[in-house]
Amino acid sequence: MNTPPFDFATPNHPLAPLTLYQVGGPAAWALTPRTLDEARAAYQWMRRQSAPQLVLGGGSNVLIADGGFPGIVLITTGLQGAEDLGGGRSRVEAGVDLGWMVRDVMLPNNYAGVGGLTGIPGSVGGAIYMNAGTNKGTICQLMESVEVASPSGVQTVAMDPSLYGYRGQTFCPPGSLILQGHFRFEPAGEDQRAIYERYIERRAQTQPKGPSCGSVFKNPEGDHAGRLIEACGLKGTRRGGAVISPKHANFILNENGASSADILWLMDLCKRRVREQFGVALREEVSIIPPRRAERVEEN
Ligand SMILES: Cc1cc2nc3c(=O)[nH]c(=O)nc-3n(C[C@H](O)[C@H](O)[C@H](O)COP(=O)(O)OP(=O)(O)OC[C@H]3O[C@@H](n4cnc5c(N)ncnc54)[C@H](O)[C@@H]3O)c2cc1C
Q1: What is the pLDDT of residues 268-296, one digit of tens each?
Q2: Catalytic annotation present for 147
Q3: Which atom of ligand 1 lies at the shortest distance from residue 20's CA?
Q4: Is 46 exposed, middle or buried (0-12, 13-18, 19+ CB in 10 A)?
Q5: How much is the pTM?
Q6: Does domain 208-289 have CATH number 3.90.78.10?
Q7: What is the CATH number of domain 9-75?
Q8: How confident is the model over 83-102, as pLDDT tens digits?
Q9: Protein residue closest via CA to atom 52 of ligand 1
Q10: One of 93, 147, 284, 285 is an active-site residue; which one?
Q11: 82-192, what's its fold?
């Protein structure tokens, strides 16, 4: 692999501390640009390399393999610019903490949409990539446009409801990089701070504490992954240091020094049991890094 020509490149870079799961090995190279120009240059250079490539935001929805990532990881958390453009419009760079945007941009202005984003960890770029949110709304609904770097260049894409859906979008295919978003917030009719406090409290009551990626699986159409896993009697099942949360069956926690393999083993168990019992194929919401070539569903 070529040595990256940047002063923000580091070899053998630990990834576990950059993820909420706190598991996984290092990246062969990490690029941590501090400005949009550095990020554009880093992305262009990265795309010319043949090594595997990954964009990492706040690390709240990834599971890194114990062997690490044998390629280049572009980490967005140095992209911290945010600007009030007036009239409810804001420019926010990919690495900005989503919680900061909710607390320091949306709440003080009583902008609508706080309910959908309250309590979701990670970066704004990662949230846009995942179209993060809840049944109260998602981040892409609040956006006017997004700047995306892809192998064909850097483009500003006008946001449109046809471009996003449940935990996904089509304007930033895998391998592309969200650099920044432009938001157009609307004033809310109701007090958003009360909504914020209500949802923080609800998460504290319903979600387990400890290192996790939040919901491991997407909800299948018309059902809840957690309900199906619980109905299979899997709550509390352990493997090594990992456990299917007794509080919320769609959370697998790194409770006690779990390995990535422990967590994957429990994920495979959930998928296999739910398929056997209900004929439903669970799909991961968490990004498994590097992606697995074939489904492993053995239970040994
Ligand atoms: C306790 C807990 C609760 C959660 N609750 C919710 C919830 O209610 N709703 C919800 O939707 N999610 C939830 N999540 C999941 C997660 O927080 C969101 O998906 C979050 O938006 C991911 O952002 P991130 O920056 O951490 O992304 P990462 O984990 O860093 O990356 C996730 C994916 O996005 C890609 N990516 C990240 N940044 C970029 C970028 N700039 N450009 C291109 N691709 C990028 C990565 O390659 C990866 O595929 C929860 C997670 C936890 C731990």
Answers
A1: 999 999 999 999 999 999 999 999 875 44
A2: no
A3: 53
A4: buried
A5: 0.96
A6: yes
A7: 3.30.43.10
A8: 999 999 999 999 999 999 99
A9: 214
A10: 285
A11: 3.30.465
